Amino acid sequence: MEMLRRAREDPLFLDAPSLLYRAFNELTGAGLTVPRKKEHNNMCLAIEKMKEKGRLEERKKSLKALEKEREKSLKALEEERKNGICNLIATCLRLGASLEMACRQLMECYHLTRSEANAYLKEYYV
């Protein structure tokens, strides 16, 4: 009974495995390491899980920010394209080009179908 009580309370006894391994290594030069306690492994695992959770959250935030930037860029490109189409139609008007000639220019420059080009002409060809 006394020995069991001492084993539970005495810090030297609790550290006996590490002391034994250290002594064995010094005598033999084997280079053995003390196996980790289960609680230590669980704590390390918990910390790693917390780190990974943090990384995942940061990745999600980054992806969200990238998606917003992508949408913003796409809107800007579409707006720029519409401005170009509008400018081409205005130039055709100033030069006195026919509706057919303006339609062909839109189809050629902006790779539009005839119906798409006609829709733009109806909207902007005043």
Overview of the structural elements:
The chain is mainly α. The chain has six helices and no strands. The chain has helices spanning 2-9, 11-14, 16-28, 38-94, 99-110, 114-124. Helix 4 runs antiparallel to helix 5 (99-110). The radius of gyration is 38 Å and the shape is rod-shaped. It starts with a helix and ends with a helix.
The N- and C-terminal alpha carbons lie at a distance of 105 Å
| Oligomeric state of this protein | single chain
Q: How many structural domains can be distinguished in the coordinates?
A: 2
Number of helices: 6
SS-derived structural category: mainly alpha
In a few lines, what is going on in this structure?
By secondary structure, the protein is mainly α. It is built from 6 helices and no strands. The relative contact order is 0.05.
